[in-house]
Amino acid sequence: MSPFFVMSLLFGLTVCQTASLCAPSEYIIHVEKRECAYCLAINTTICAGFCMTRDSNGKKLLLKSALSQNVCTYKEMLYQTALIPGCPHHTIPYYSYPVAVSCKCGKCNTDYSDCVNEKVKTNYCTKPQKLCNM
């Protein structure tokens, strides 16, 4: 292989990784408790975007650990707490949620991420809404 081809290949792989489009993205979480009068719409950020992955043709020949795909996940996050309005005194009216500060392409950690690639169909309110801008 020519040195020019190898350098072009390395440059292309580097550009693809840096242009992976995995970044914090605005998202609205709808939170409600059965005992409380209102649903809270919380503006936050989550990690979302495209990460370069490879699908191996030799799936049956490789270990499962070699088949894991990279996903857009949290590099740095913090938790914030919101107060759900209209809760009776015997109910804890607080809800804590993650806020993405920075993101990376990497293996999905089920300790703090939902690793399923399906849309959440229950992110809506069944009660009157209050908006919470954090």
Secondary structure elements and their pairing?
Elements: H1 3-18, E1 23-32, E2 39-48, E3 71-83, E4 94-106, E5 129-133
Parallel strand pairs: 2-5
Antiparallel strand pairs: 1-2, 3-4
Subunit structure: Heterodimer of a common alpha chain and a unique beta chain which confers biological specificity to thyrotropin, lutropin, follitropin and gonadotropin.
GO molecular function: hormone activity
GO biological process, one term: G protein-coupled receptor signaling pathway
Count of alpha/pi helices: 1
Q: Largest sheet, order of strands side by side?
A: 1-2-5
Tell me the CATH topology: Cystine Knot Cytokines, subunit B
Query: If you compute it from the alpha carbons, what radius of gyration comes out, rounded to the nearest whole angstrom?
Result: 21 Å
Strand residue percentage: 35-45%
Shape: elongated
Query: Structural class, from secondary structure content?
Result: mainly beta
Share of helix, binned: 10-25%
Distance between the termini: 54 Å
CATH architecture: Ribbon
Task: Please name the defining characteristics of this protein.
single chain, 134 residues, mainly beta, Cystine Knot Cytokines, subunit B, three-stranded mixed beta sheet, two-stranded antiparallel ribbon, 1 helix, elongated, hormone activity, Cystine-knot_cytokine, signal
Explain the overall architecture.
- It is a single chain.
- Helices cover about 10% and strands about 40% of the residues.
- With about 130 residues, the chain is mostly beta strands.
- It has one domain: Cystine Knot Cytokines, subunit B, CATH 2.10.90.
- It has a 3-stranded mixed sheet with strand order 1-2-5, with no helix packed on it.
- The termini are far apart.
- The relative contact order is 0.26.
- The model has no long low-confidence stretch (mean pLDDT about 75).
- It comes from Probosciger aterrimus.
- One of its GO terms (biological process) is G protein-coupled receptor signaling pathway.
- It holds the Pfam family Cys_knot.
